[in-house]
Specification:
Order of helices and strands of chain A: HHHHH
Distance between the termini of chain A: 50 Å
Order of helices and strands of chain B: HHHHHHHHHHHHHHHHHHEEHH
Largest sheet of chain A: none
Helix content of chain A: over 70%
Shape of chain A: elongated
Number of strands of chain B: 2
Helix content of chain B: 55-70%
Largest interface: A-B, 53 and 59 residues
Structural class of chain A: mainly alpha
Oligomer: heterodimer
Radius of gyration of chain A: 21 Å
Number of strands of chain A: 0
Radius of gyration of chain B: 25 Å
Shape of chain B: globular
Distance between the termini of chain B: 31 Å
Chain lengths: 202, 634
């Protein structure tokens, strides 16, 4: 336990502990909010799916996996540069490669979204036809809104780090944005498993 | 010798740094927790007044058989708006508002952790409320009940925009509630005074911590449910449309997965207020602190396992009925532990019968009665009989008015001297209490009987031959008394704010750090941050003299070296001081963000999608500016 000035000794001001700042806590709680939303959507998906004998209901075909496998790979890959920047920021290092890594993550994230949108028309997803399409819209839409917001966050961090380097404020921003991005990555694995794999097994 | 609260010899940089700018610009950019929480409190009570007026109109209608005072449609609108207002716009925000004002004081810190989020929360709360109420201007008042069941609220049966007002307005208010919950949880975990271990923090903090976590898990599913219904209505999806594979019961599951924790989200801050007031007026430390804290957590957890007890008559499987019935029957155990602890505390001490204490005891009486009927409706056979009748109306008014209104009124009498620096009139307070207590019971007790006689909820009128007129008329006269009592409290508050007797810093001999601050507290709350080492810091040594060690971080907090707003972060469990952090001073972004989102909301409402898109893009740009531009230095 780090104590300072508490037991009477005149201790120096403790070093900033960026990894667990209030920004980290705020992001943790925001993620719990998002997890709760995701759980409500998953509940809706399986609750409504339970009312059908065949899933997806005709005329929708079982969703093809090719494009989404590529997109998922890109998204998982994007976590690597984000994690590199995150670890560097947490250690207080500023080695100059941060902006490049963030730009790579942005490109991978944008590519993921582009491939996914191509997939929806290829898989003939129509939210207005029946509840299957509606659920597709709800789950994928929830994920993509978060992905866009997290990409914007990474973009802001990129500009800040490029112009000002890694000061305490940027450090906290990197930690916060990185954790948001990890949520985008892992929640996609859950969403994709539900939308693309569940119809094949149940 | 210098102590923590002595003003400095030189120029007062601390006061200057924490002062809100004068003028309208200062008002719109203010971030201080007390200023914003005061707005929350006033707004919540205004909505309480509106909801109250609606209930008086409904009671007048029901006071006599075959009354033509209101028509059926108006009655539907009134009960919808009454329930929505009281649940979403009053009961939840008022608990958060008290917590936002008093927890930073009780925990010995200077502000909430995300000051701009505090301000943003109030803006969308008030804009969401105005949006919902603007439906009156367009004659499109929501009429689907406060729980907005589909298919009644779906596109087929509610083609007008009344339900859109409800869905969009309520979602705004929910976002405000979630933002407040995030603030309060981080506050309680990280902003406690040095030395205030988590096992020593005030019980109100335990209650608000559990409430905050419950909000974080319970409110998002309703946001999801509302968005899905809005998609059904605007985009033509089929989530709740059985014809295309959707299901109406899905709405009920999602709504009550929110709706039952919601009841405890309303109740828990009330229990925390009671746990705060009882020891002060019983002149005794609270009995069973740990048991109360543990049962608070237990209520929070159990509250997520009981939602289906609102759906016993929807034809769900027997096993589900049994599970949710048993889970509901567990709730009285932690509740009874708390009630026993309060009674034991009063018993152990020497009670001082001031108005706050009367409201607390009134709360215990009413809440126990509501609890007893709660145990009755938790049983499936009984509920099948009583469901949708006035028995349920009586039950939940006992629980909600007992559970939150009485503690809130106790809190008003307890803390108003801290907010205004002036005491409320004790005699008016006592009369107000008795009118409220008697009026409440005369209003709602007879409704149990009407309910058992078979009168369903939401009837706008009834035939004389039903025999319900007597109990309904008694209830209406009770409402008159209840209203008089509440108006007397209002008059007392308004009058005393101006002419009341000076309260001094600690009129009640308080236990917690809020009574160590001056009345009213300065913007920075405490000149020096007190270190504490027990649950009742103000009772250990009289007068309270916290440890002050110049040449440590305390010195920097007391006289900041730069014009920055500083607070000390402490560790989660032991509250060891870890870091001094600075907070933003003022910001336009919360207001701009709230307005941008409101533009998006209006665009969606009136189907002008370019307008909605403009609002969303403006919100995105504002979000970037919000992250980028933070003014920590004056």
């Amino acid at each position: 336990m780090r104590t300072s000035g508490h037991t009477g000794e005149a201790a120096p001001r403790p070093a900033p502990h960026i990894a667990r700042g209030t920004g980290w806590w705020g992001m943790l709680l925001l993620q719990l909010v998002l997890v709760s939303m995701l759980a409500a959507l998953l509940f809706s998906y399986f609750y409504l799916r339970d009312g059908f004998d065949t899933w997806p209901p005709a005329p929708a075909p079982a969703p093809a996996l090719g494009l989404t496998a590529v997109a998922t790979g890109l998204l998982v890959l994007s976590a690597v540069p984000v994690a590199a920047v995150h670890l560097a920021a947490r250690a207080g290092r500023s080695d100059g490669r941060g902006p490049a890594a963030l730009a790579a993550a942005l490109a991978l994230g944008a590519a993921f979204l582009a491939v996914q949108f191509a997939d929806y028309s290829a898989n003939d997803i129509d939210p207005q036809r029946d509840v299957y399409g509606s659920l597709f819209l709800a789950l994928a839409g929830f994920h993509h809104v978060n992905a866009v917001l997290a990409l914007l966050g990474l973009g802001v961090v990129l500009l800040r780090v490029r112009s000002g380097g890694m000061r305490p404020r940027e450090q906290e921003m990197v930690v916060t944005a990185a954790h948001y991005w990890y949520f985008v990555v892992w929640s996609w694995i859950v969403v994709a498993a539900t939308l693309y794999l569940a119809p094949r097994f149940w | 010798m210098t102590t923590l609260q002595d003003p400095p010899a030189t120029e007062d940089r601390l006061a200057a740094t924490w002062a809100t700018q004068p003028g309208a610009a200062g008002w719109f950019t203010a971030l201080n927790h007390k200023q914003v929480a005061q707005r929350f409190l006033v707004t919540a009570f205004v909505f309480f007044g509106l909801g109250g007026i609606q209930s008086v109109l409904m009671r007048w209608q029901l006071g006599s058989a075959e009354s033509t005072f209101l028509d059926a449609q108006t009655y539907n609108e009134l009960f919808t708006m009454h329930g929505t207002t009281m649940m979403f716009l009053f009961a939840v925000p008022v608990g958060e508002a008290f917590a936002m004002y008093f927890l930073p004081l009780m925990l010995g810190t200077r502000d909430l952790p995300f000051p701009r989020l505090t301000a943003f929360g109030w803006y969308i709360y008030v804009l969401g409320g105005i949006f919902l109420y603007s439906s009156f201007l367009f004659g499109q008042v929501p009429d689907g009940g406060w729980f907005a069941y589909t298919p009644l609220t779906g596109p087929e049966y509610s083609p007008s925009s009344s339900i859109d007002f409800w869905l969009l307005g309520v979602t705004f208010v929910e976002i405000a509630t979630i933002a407040g919950a995030i603030e309060l949880v981080v506050l309680i975990l990280r902003y406690r005074a040095p030395g205030m271990k988590i096992s020593q923090m005030p019980l109100l903090a335990w209650n608000v911590l559990v409430t905050g976590i419950a909000v974080i898990f319970a409110f998002p599913p309703l946001v999801v449910a509302s968005v899905l219904l809005e998609l059904d209505r605007k985009v033509g999806t089929h989530f709740y449309d059985p014809a295309a594979g959707g299901e109406s019961l899905l709405w009920q599951h999602l709504f009550w997965f929110f709706g039952h924790p919601e009841v405890y989200i309303i109740l828990l801050p009330g229990l925390g207020i009671v746990s705060t007031i009882v020891p002060v007026f019983a002149r005794s430390r609270i009995v069973g602190y740990s048991l109360i804290a543990v049962s608070t957590v237990a209520i929070g957890i159990l509250s997520f396992g009981v939602w289906v007890h609102h759906m016993f008559t929807t034809g769900i499987p027997q096993l589900g009925l049994a599970f949710f019935s048993v889970a509901s029957l567990f709730i009285p155990i932690p509740s009874a532990i708390q009630i026993s602890a309060w009674i034991a505390t009063i018993w152990q001490g020497r009670a001082v019968w001031k108005t706050p204490m009367m409201y607390v005891v009134g709360f215990i009486v009413i809440f126990v009665l509501g609890g007893v009927t709660g145990v009755m409706v938790a049983s499936v056979p009984f509920d099948t009989q009583a469901h949708d009748s006035y028995f349920v109306v009586a039950h939940f008014h006992y629980v909600l008015i007992g559970g939150i209104l009485f503690p809130v009124l106790a809190a008003v009498h307890f803390w108003m001297p801290k907010i205004t620096g002036r005491l409320l009139d004790e005699r008016l307070g006592t009369i107000g209490f008795w009118l409220t207590f008697i009026g409440f019971n005369v209003t709602f007790f007879p409704l149990h009987i009407t309910g058992l006689q078979g009168m369903p909820r939401r009837l706008y009128t009834y035939a004389e031959s039903t025999g319900w007129e007597l109990t309904q008329a008694i209830a209406t006269w009770g409402t008159v008394v209840l209203t008089l009592g509440l108006l007397m409290t209002l008059g007392n508050v308004v009058h005393s704010a101006r002419y009341g007797e000076r309260a001094g810093d600690d009129p009640w001999g308080g236990e917690t750090l809020d009574w160590y601050a001056t009345s009213p507290p300065p913007a920075y709350n405490f000149r020096g941050i007190p270190e504490v080492a027990s649950r009742s810091p103000l009772w250990d040594t009289r007068p309270f003299r916290p440890r002050y060690d110049p040449a440590t971080w305390q010195d920097e907090l007391r006289e900041p070296r730069a014009p920055v707003r500083q607070v000390v972060l402490t560790s989660v469990l032991d509250a060891a001081p870890e870091e001094l952090v600075t907070l933003p001073q003022k910001s336009w972004w919360p207001l701009v963000m709230a307005v941008a989102l409101t533009v998006a909301l209006i665009g969606t409402m009136i189907d002008v999608y370019p307008l909605a898109l403009t609002g969303v893009l403006a919100a995105v740009v504002t979000g970037v500016a919000w992250i980028w531009d933070r003014q920590d230095q004056r």
